[in-house]
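Bumping my old thread because nobody answered last time. Still need a sequence for this structure:
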């Protein structure tokens, strides 16, 4: 099997997890408590991916200040995207505000999945083992994202058939991100690959702290949330140890 097909299979793991989260939203009764725990756990996993695995790559290159700047740029890009989403949400407010909000969540998750694909595709050009580790780390984080997306459309009354099609369509951003990044940086010096990883890490870190956790606290705030956050971080630490 070619390396490229292997990359697509790796990207398919979190894509399947996201779709599975969407299917769960079709059968599980709505619960702010469960959604809050899931989002905190997902944020903990993303922080683990960045802090445990990606920062090791960033600090291991000859000129680490370059990917560190890329990390900051990724955070800035995430802030800019959030501002654009908020503008669109306000622009299309009024009677259709609820439906617009659901589509904005869909857009945000699509961008996050594209970032996941970039991580997997770029990491796989450094080593297939790193690509596998990044894919496994994204699997448990993408389940609550799929759940939250489809649960929101379900709450807005979108027909089930369209919800399922939307859940399936979320595989496209992550597969596209993996393919584009793999061919874009394949054969380039490692500093370019690591800088792209750092840029994506900045996006994901900002999304985890400013979006996932913030959204979780808008639903329900309990004493279990912090444990879920730390538990997600610990889960990725175990994945990194036993699969890294």
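Sorry it took so long. Here it is:
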């Amino acid at each position: 099997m070619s390396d490229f097909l292997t990359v697509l299979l790796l990207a398919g793991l979190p894509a399947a997890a996201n779709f599975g989260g969407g299917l769960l939203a079709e059968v599980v009764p709505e619960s702010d408590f469960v959604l809050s725990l899931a989002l905190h756990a997902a944020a903990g996993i993303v922080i683990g991916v960045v802090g445990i695995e990606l920062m090791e790559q960033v600090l291991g290159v000859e000129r680490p200040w370059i990917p560190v700047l890329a990390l900051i740029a990724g955070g800035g890009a995430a802030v800019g995207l959030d501002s654009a989403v908020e503008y669109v949400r306000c622009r299309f407010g009024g009677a259709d505000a609820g439906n617009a909000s659901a589509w904005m969540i869909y857009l945000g998750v699509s961008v996050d999945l594209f970032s996941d694909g970039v991580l997997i595709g770029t990491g796989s050009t450094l080593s297939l083992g790193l690509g596998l580790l990044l894919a496994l780390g994204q699997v448990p984080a993408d389940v609550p994202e799929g759940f939250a997306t489809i649960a929101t459309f379900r709450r807005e009354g979108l027909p089930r058939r369209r919800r399922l099609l939307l859940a399936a369509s979320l595989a496209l951003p992550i597969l596209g991100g993996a393919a584009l990044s793999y061919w874009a940086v394949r054969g380039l010096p490692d500093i370019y690959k690591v800088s792209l990883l750092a840029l994506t890490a900045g996006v994901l870190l900002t999304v985890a702290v400013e979006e996932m956790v913030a959204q979780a606290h808008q639903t329900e705030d309990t004493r279990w949330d912090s444990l879920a956050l730390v538990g997600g971080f610990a889960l990725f630490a175990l994945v990194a140890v036993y699969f890294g």
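DSSP finds nine helices and no strands in the chain. Let me know if any region looks off to you.
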